[in-house]
Design goal:
Blueprint: H1 2-35, H2 40-52
């Protein structure tokens, strides 16, 4: 019984690795794209969003 619980817990954590890593990659891409983008539209959209969430950006 203990091995089944351990195996079940291991499979649950293994099944969360892919969504967590994909979310982290998406977040890093978005921060990198917006942070280093030379497009004024992208910067202004992110800037306004940060202010609307009361997140200090400067």
């Amino acid at each position: 019984m203990v091995t089944n619980s351990a195996a079940s817990a291991a499979s649950v954590s293994a099944s969360k690795i892919i969504p967590l890593s994909m979310s982290a990659l998406l977040g890093l891409f978005m921060v990198g794209f917006v942070g280093f983008s030379h497009l004024e539209v992208v910067h202004n959209a992110a800037h306004d969003t940060r202010h609307s969430l009361a997140f200090p950006c400067h």
